[in-house]
Specification:
The structure holds 2 protein chains of 2 kinds. Chain A is an alpha/beta fold. Chain A has 2 domains: 240 residues, Periplasmic binding protein-like II (D-Maltodextrin-Binding Protein, domain 2, 3-Layer(aba) Sandwich); 96 residues, Periplasmic binding protein-like II (D-Maltodextrin-Binding Protein, domain 2), CATH 3.40.190.10. Chain A is built from 14 helices and 13 strands. In chain A, helix 3 packs antiparallel against helix 13 and helix 9 crosses helix 13. The longest helix of chain A is centred in the first third of the chain and has 27 residues. Chain B is mainly alpha-helical. Chain B has a domain of 229 residues: MetI-like (MetI-like fold), CATH 1.10.3720.10. The longest helix of chain B is centred in the last third of the chain and has 31 residues. The N and C termini of chain B lie far apart (69 Å). The chains are: A alpha/beta, B mainly alpha. At the A-B interface, helix 1, strand 2 and strand 4 of A face helix 4, helix 5, helix 13 and helix 17 of B.
Chain lengths: 357, 432
C-alpha cells in the first residue's frame, strides 16, 4: 500500500488520529528531553554527528529503493544526498532510515530522523496540526486514470458506466467520487486493497479503469508485459504536491533543506549541471546569480551557516533538478514520466525557485 | 474292477492343477486401481476430477518452472528472452539471493559470519533436541548465544565476554546459595550478574567497536531470512522458560504472584502482536532521549518473546491441568518439596502433553516474525515487498519471489513439525 506506490492516496484519517495520540503520550513523558534535544539545533546536531539521518520509503519504484549492491537510489534519495552534500560536504554521509506510511511522522517528530523525503503530500493538517514544516515541492503528483488501449477512450469524461478499480479507505476514493459526480457520469467501483492486487485485477479485466497517483500509474504500467497496450488518460483529478519536510520550530535547519532544494531547481534554470558545476564554481563568471548560487560572489552560504561552496556540493552530488528527474523517473527510464507540471516555470511547469539574492 | 471303476467315474484328476495367474482384473495395478480409485461410482468421479485438477495444475506450473530464466538482469530482459513463451523469471533470485538471505545492508564480504553462526546453531541445539547425545555438548549450547552474537554483530570481543562473565557469576552465586535459601540464591545471582556486567562494562573502552578485529555491524543492517531466523530462534528459546514460569505462577497459591501472572497473560493475549510491534518501534522512541535509544532489534525481541510467552504459558497450563491429581498427591506423599515435585514429576509429564501446543506456538511465532516488515525492518518479506519489488528492474515479479519465501519458511516449519512428532513417539510412555 503506502509501501508500494507513492500512495499518498492511502493516507487515512485514522493514521492522523493515531499520530496525534502518540504525539500526546510522547509529549507527556519526555517533554523535558525533547525540548533539550531540539534546543541544540538540528544543523549543529547533524554536523556533530557527521551524518544526516534522512527518512525515506521502504521502497517506491523510481523514488527510493536500494539497488543490488544495497545503495539507495531514487528521486527522493537524491534530495537527501544533496542536503548531506550541502551541510556536510559529502553526499555519502547519509544514514537512510526506511519508514512506512505509518511510522514516518513519528520518526520525524521523535527526532529519529532529521528530515523526511518520502513523497509525502503537503496538506493543511500535516503542516499545521502535526507540526511539520514542508520546505517545498519536489514532485507535483495527482490522481490519474489508466485504461487498456483497446477500450478506445481518450478522455476520462468518456468513462460513463465504467468499472473502476480503486483502493479502499483512501483519498483517491473520495476524489474519484467527486470527479464523476461533478461531470455527471456514472461509474461502478471495484474495491481492492493493495496496488499489487490492483495490478492483477486490472490485467485480469475485473475493471476497465485503474486509478491512483499518476506516478504510481506510470510505474505500474511500466511493469506490465506490454505497456503500450495501456494508456494513462490526460485528466488529473487531484492535487498531490510531494515534498521534503522537517520538524516545526527549527527554522535554521528548515532553511538549509529548503534552499538546498531551491539550489537544485535554480541550477537547472540557470543551466548549471553536474558536468559544468566544477568549472563554474572555480571562478566568478558573467552571470551574477550563478556566482551568488555557487558562492563565488556574496555570502549566501555563510548566512545559512554553511560553507560558500554548499550549493555547488549539492549540485555535484547528483546534478540539478532536471538531471535528477531524468535519471530516476524521466522518459529515458522504464517509468518514463514526462516533466508535465514538473517542468521549469520557464517551460510552462510549476517548478519555480525564489531568487538567490 | 478297474474297468467298472473307469467307467463309473467320468474323470479323476491324479495331480493338482498348476497354479495360474489370477485374472488380470483381480490382481496387479488394475485391481489396485479398482479397489482404491474406482471402488464406487462416487469414488470414481472423485478420482477423475482429482486427476483432472492435478493435470491442470502441473500443465501450467511445470512449463513455467522448467522454462524459467536464471541469467538475465531485469524482468524486461526476461520477457525479451522468453519472447511470449510461458516461463518464470528466476533471475531475480540469482541476482538478489544475498539480499533475500542477509538483507541489503549486511556487508557482503562478511556473509560467512552469519553463515557460520547458522551452521553452529545445529551443533548447539542438537544436544537439546536429541538427548542421546553426550551431555557435555550442552557446554557448547550454553556458549552459543555469545558466539552467535559475536559472529553476527561483531565489534569488541569484550561485550560478549563480559555478558558471559556476568551469566557465569550469577550462576555460580545461585549454585552456592540456593541450597540454603532459594530467594537468596536467585536474587543474589541476578545482582551478581548485574554487578559483573557493570564492572566489566567499565573495562570496555569507548569506541572499541571501531578498532575491533571483527568489524561491527549495527542491528539496522541486519535483514532478510537471517533476521527471521534470528528473531525466531531467540524468541522461541527465551519464551519457553518464561512461559513455564508464567504457567506455574498462574497456578501458584500466592495471590500476588498469581495476580501478576494472570494480568500479564491476559493483557498480552488481548493485544495483537502488530500493536506490540508498533509500540516497540514507534512509542518507545518517545520514552528515550533521541541519542540513547535501545536497539530496535532488542525491542522487537522483547515484544515477540513476551507475546509468545503468554501463549506458551496457556498451553503449558493446559498440560498441568491435564495431569491427574494423583500425580501431585503422589509427589507430596514422597516428601518432595514444591521445587522437586515440579521439576521431577509434574513438569516432565505436563510438558510432554503440551508438546503439540508448544510446537504450534513456535511455528506460528516463526511465521509471525514476518510482521516486522510493517515497522520497516527488512526481513525476508520486507525485502520482497520493499526494495526488490520497488527496483525498476524487478517491479512486477511476484510469484518467483513469494514462492521462494514460501519454500524457505516451509522447510523450517516442516522440520520443526517432524521433530515434534519424533519427540512425541520417543516420549510415548503411556499405556495406550
Amino acid at each position: 500500500m503506502c509501501v508500494w506506490f507513492g500512495a499518498e492516496d492511502l493516507r487515512t484519517y485514522q493514521e492522523e488520529v493515531n499520530m496525534n495520540k502518540s504525539v500526546f503520550f510522547g509529549a507527556l513523558t519526555v517533554a523535558g528531553l525533547a525540548v533539550g534535544a531540539a534546543a541544540a539545533g538540528t544543523l549543529d546536531d547533524v554536523k556533530a554527528r557527521g551524518k544526516l539521518n534522512c527518512g525515506v520509503t521502504t521502497g517506491l519504484i523510481g523514488f527510493a529503493a536500494p539497488d543490488a549492491n544495497g545503495e539507495w537510489k531514487g528521486f527522493d534519495v537524491a534530495v537527501c544526498r544533496a542536503v548531506a552534500a550541502a551541510a556536510l560536504g559529502d553526499p555519502a554521509a547519509v544514514e537512510f532510515v526506511p519508514t512506512t506510511g505509518k511510522t514516518r511522522f513519528t520518526a520525524l517528530a521523535s527526532g529519529e530522523i532529521d528530515m523526511l523525503a518520502r513523497n509525502t503530500t503537503w496538506t493543511f493538517s500535516r503542516d499545521v496540526d502535526l507540526k511539520f514544516t514542508f520546505v517545498g515541492v519536489n514532485y507535483y503528483d495527482g490522481q490519474g486514470f489508466m485504461v487498456p488501449r483497446e477500450l478506445g477512450v481518450s478522455s476520462a469524461k468518456e468513462l460513463d458506466g465504467a468499472t473502476v478499480c480503486i483502493q479502499t479507505g483512501t483519498t483517491t476514493e473520495l476524489n474519484l467520487a467527486d470527479f464523476f459526480r461533478s461531470n455527471n457520469i456514472e461509474y461502478e467501483p471495484v474495491p481492492i486493497e493493495t496496488n499489487a492486487e490492483a495490478q492483477q485485477q486490472y490485467l485480469a479485466g475485473a475493471c476497465d479503469v485503474y486509478t491512483t497517483d499518476a506516478s504510481g500509474l506510470a510505474a505500474t504500467r511500466a511493469a506490465f508485459e506490454d505497456p503500450s497496450a495501456h494508456i494513462v488518460l490526460p485528466e488529473i483529478v487531484s492535487k498531490e504536491p510531494l515534498g521534503p519536510l522537517v520538524r516545526h520550530g527549527d527554522d535554521e535547519w528548515g532553511d538549509v533543506v529548503r534552499w538546498t532544494l531551491n539550489a537544485l531547481i535554480t541550477a537547472e534554470e540557470l543551466g548549471v549541471t553536474s558536468t559544468n558545476v566544477g568549472e563554474m564554481s572555480a571562478s566568478a563568471g558573467d552571470n551574477p546569480e550563478i556566482n551568488r548560487l555557487l558562492g563565488t560572489e556574496g555570502t549566501l552560504g555563510e548566512m545559512l551557516g554553511l560553507d560558500a561552496g554548499w550549493a555547488s556540493a549539492a549540485i555535484t552530488a547528483g546534478g540539478n533538478y532536471g538531471e535528477i528527474f531524468e535519471r530516476n523517473i524521466g522518459e529515458s527510464t522504464p517509468i518514463g514520466l514526462s516533466r508535465g507540471l514538473n517542468a521549469q516555470w520557464t517551460d510552462g511547469g510549476l517548478i519555480y525557485s525564489p531568487p538567490f539574492r | 474292477m478297474s474297468d467298472t471303476q473307469q467307467h463309473s467315474v467320468a474323470f479323476v484328476r491324479t495331480e493338482a492343477i498348476p497354479e495360474r495367474e489370477p485374472p488380470y482384473t483381480a490382481s496387479g495395478p488394475l485391481k489396485w486401481m479398482k479397489d482404491n480409485l474406482f471402488a464406487t461410482p462416487f469414488n470414481g468421479i472423485l478420482t477423475i476430477v482429482a486427476v483432472y485438477l492435478i493435470y491442470m495444475i502441473l500443465s501450467s506450473a511445470l512449463p513455467w518452472m522448467l522454462n524459467g530464466i536464471w541469467t538475465t538482469s531485469s524482468l524486461a530482459e526476461c520477457r525479451t528472452v522468453l519472447d511470449g513463451a510461458v516461463g518464470a523469471c528466476f533471475s531475480v533470485l540469482t541476482e538478489r539471493w544475498n539480499q533475500l538471505l542477509f538483507g541489503f545492508k549486511y556487508p557482503s564480504e562478511l556473509y560467512w559470519r552469519p553463515g557460520l553462526a547458522f551452521m553452529l546453531l545445529f551443533v548447539a541445539i542438537a544436544p537439546v533436541l536429541f538427548f542421546d547425545l553426550p551431555r557435555k555438548l550442552l557446554i557448547f549450547t550454553g556458549l552459543y548465544p555469545f558466539i552467535a552474537y559475536y559472529l553476527v554483530w561483531g565489534g569488541a570481543i569484550g561485550v560478549p565476554l563480559v555478558a558471559l562473565a556476568g551469566c557465569v557469576a550469577g550462576a555460580v552465586f545461585y549454585q552456592s546459595f540456593v541450597a540454603r535459601n532459594f530467594a537468596l540464591g536467585f536474587l543474589g545471582g541476578v545482582i551478581a550478574a548485574f554487578v559483573t556486567w557493570y564492572i566489566g562494562g567499565l573495562f570496555i573502552p569507548d569506541g572499541a567497536n571501531n578498532t575491533a578485529w571483527m568489524r561491527a555491524v549495527p542491528s539496522r543492517d541486519l535483514g532478510g531470512f537471517m533476521l527471521n531466523m534470528m528473531l525466531g530462534v531467540t524468541c522461541v528459546s527465551l519464551s519457553l522458560p518464561l512461559g513455564i514460569a508464567l504457567a506455574l505462577g498462574r497456578q501458584s497459591s500466592m495471590p500476588l504472584i498469581k495476580v501478576i501472572c494472570v494480568v500479564f497473560i491476559e493483557f498480552i493475549r488481548g493485544v495483537p502482536l502488530i500493536t506490540l510491534l508498533f509500540v516497540a518501534s514507534v512509542m518507545l522512541a518517545y520514552f528515550f532521549p533521541p541519542d540513547s535509544t535501545v536497539d530496535l532489534f532488542l525491542r522487537v525481541v522483547i515484544m515477540i518473546t513476551v507475546f509468545s510467552a503468554a501463549y506458551i504459558a496457556e498451553v503449558i497450563r493446559g498440560g498441568l491441568a491435564a495431569l491427574p491429581k494423583g500425580q501431585y498427591e503422589g509427589a507430596d506423599s514422597l516428601g518432595l518439596d514444591y521445587a522437586q515435585a515440579t521439576r521431577l514429576i509434574i513438569l516432565p509429564q505436563a510438558l510432554k502433553i503440551s508438546i503439540p501446543g508448544i510446537v504450534n506456538v513456535a511455528v506460528g511465532l516463526f511465521k509471525d516474525t514476518t510482521l516486522v516488515s510493517v515497522i520497516s525492518m527488512f526481513d525476508l518479506v520486507g525485502m520482497i515487498r520493499g526494495p526488490i519489488l520497488a527496483s525498476t528492474a524487478w517491479n512486477g515479479v511476484y510469484w518467483e519471489l513469494l514462492g521462494f519465501a514460501a519454500v524457505l519458511f516451509f522447510v523450517v516449519c516442516y522440520g520443526i513439525s517432524q521433530y515434534s512428532q519424533w519427540l512425541e513417539r520417543r516420549l510415548a510412555t503411556d499405556h495406550r
